[in-house]
Amino acid sequence: MFSMIACATVALAALAPPSAHSGTPATSHDSLPATGASSSSEGWQQQQAADEEPQRTQGRLLWRRLQILGWDDLCEQNTRTNSAADDGINISCRAHKRLFARVVPVDLAAACCFFVIAALAMSGGIGGGAVFVPSLTLLLRFTPSVAISLSQSLICGAAMGAFLVNAFSAHPYDPSRPLIDVPLTAFLAPAEMAGAVIGTQLHRALPTALTLGAMVILLTLTAFYTLRKGVRMRAAETDLGGTVVAVEKSNLLPERPFGQPLATSGAPAASASPDSSGSRRTTKRLQCESVALLVSCWIALVLLLLLRGGKGAPSLLGASECSATFWALTLGALLMLAAASVSAAKRLVAKQVTPPSSASRVAEIKWNPASATKCAMQAVGAGVVAGMMGVGGGIVLGPLMLEMGILPQVSTATTATMILLTSSSAAAAFYISGMTPPDYSITFGAVTLAGAYTGKRFVALLLRRYHCVSAIVLLLGFLIAASTLAIGATGIVELQSELQAQGSFAATLALRPFC
Question: Where are the transmembrane segments (predicted)?
C-alpha cells in the first residue's frame, strides 16, 4: 500500500501539465545562427510536440479512468480545473466538495486506504503522516496545506485507536505495570518536541535537494538496521522457541530480551516482597506526576500553535514569522519543554520503577544522570532530524528506542502515545483555526481510529499465540522502508517544481533565509 502510493505520486507528477519553464531548451533561441533560425525553431517545436503526444495520450486515458471513480466530482462544479480534453491532470481542487454532499467511489477507496495505513502504521509505532499527506493530495485532490492539516486529524485518530488498546494492556514482564511507559513518555516527548521546533527552523533554510538526499540516506539506513535487528530477533526466537513456550506455559518468568541471559528453570519468580507495596505506591505516584506533566505540555503546545502559529496554522496574535513575538514564543516553548524533560528525568533517576531485586530488571533502563543525559540528547537529535526533514518523530524515535534496549511492545506503545500528544495538539490548533474540513476530519479520523484499533488487536493476538515479538520490529522496518519511498517520491516532485522555478540545479543548492 505504501509503495503503491509512492509510485502513484511519481506517475501523476509525470502526467501533470508541463510548465512554461519545462518546455524551454537549455540553449536560448538567440544563440542559433541567423540563417535558418526560424525553420530550426519550427522543426524543434514540431519534434517536441511529437515527443509529448504519447504523454498526453496517457494523461487522457488515466483521466477517463479516474473519472469513473468520481475523481472529477471531488471539486465543486464551478471550480473544476480539468476536463477529458485536457492534456494533463491538475491534481488539487480550488474548492473541494463537502464529504456528504455527494459520496463518490474515490471517497470510499480513500477510507479503505486510510484504514489499512492506520492499522499498519500504529502496529509498527509510527504515525503514517508520510503516507497520509500524499494520499490526501493524490486520492482526494486536497491542496498541500489542507492535506497537511487534515493529516493531523487522521494521525490523531490512529494514535487514539492505538491508545485504547495500549492503555488496557499490561507490561509483558510485569502484569502489575501498564504497557505504556508513561514516565519515559514524559521524559522523551518534551525533548523530542524541542528538537522538532529547532529542526523545523533549520528546514526553512536548508535546500530541498540537501534535505531530500539526507532524508533518504538516513531513513534507508534506519530501515536496514531495524530490519537486521528484526531478523536477528526472529532467528533467536526460532532457536529458543521450545524453551520460551515451556516457560510461558508453566507461568514462570516470561522470555527476556534477546542478548540477555535467560533465567534458569529454578530461578524464583518475582513474588511479593516486603517493599513491593511501597514500590507500587511509588510507581503509581510517578505515573500520576508524569500524566500531569504530559497534560501540561499538551496545553502549552496547543497554546503555542495558536499564539505563534506553525504547521500552516496562522497566529491568533497576528505575529509574523521571524518577528520579535514569534521568536519570543519559540524561545519560551523551548525553555518550557526543556524544563519539563529535566523534571521528568529527575523523577526517573530518583524513583526507580523497578526495584533491584525484581526478576524483570533486565527489561529496564538503569536510570542515572549519565544515562538520562544520553537519552535526552538522543531524543533531541531525533526531533531535530524529524523536524528538519519534515517527517514524524515516531519514524526516527521508534528505532532509537529499540537501540536503547526498550522492549518492542513497550516501544511501540510509548511512541504511539507521544504521537497522540503531538498530533492531537496540532489537530486541535488546525480545527480551531478553521483550516481543517470538519466532515473529512471527523469521518476519516474515526476510520483511522478503527483501523489502528483493529491492527493493534490483531498484532496482540499474534504475539499471544505465536510469541513472535520480532514481528513488531520487522513491521517497523518495512514501514520505514515504504515511507522512504513515499517521502522520496513527493520530494522529487517538489524538487522538480523548484528546478523549474530556479532554472538550474546549482540555484536549488543555495541556502535559503530563515525569514
Answer: 108-133, 145-168, 209-227, 286-306, 326-345, 379-401, 413-432, 466-489
- Give tens-digit pLDDT for 379-389: 888 888 877 76
Handedness of CA 283, 287, 293, 294 (dihedral sign): positive
Give pairs for 400-404: CB < 8 Å, separation 24+.
401/188, 402/226, 402/229, 402/473, 402/476, 404/365, 404/375, 404/378
* Structural domain count of the chain: 1
Rounded Cα distance between 297 and 316, Å, is 19
What global pTM score does this model have?
0.71
Residue ranges of the chain with per-residue pLDDT less than 50: 2-7, 9-38, 79-89, 242-275, 353-363
For residue 51, what pLDDT is reported? 57
171 within some domain: yes
Question: Does residue 8 belong to any structural domain of this protein?
Answer: no
pLDDT tens digits along 254-265: 333 333 433 333
Task: Annotate 5-23 with three-state secondary structure.
Answer: HHHHHHHHHHCCCCCCCCC
Task: Please check whether residue 150 lies inside any domain of the structure.
Answer: yes
**Which residues are CB-neighbours of 398 under 8 A, at least 6 positions away?**
124, 125, 126, 411, 412, 415, 476
The answer to whether position 35 is within a domain reads no
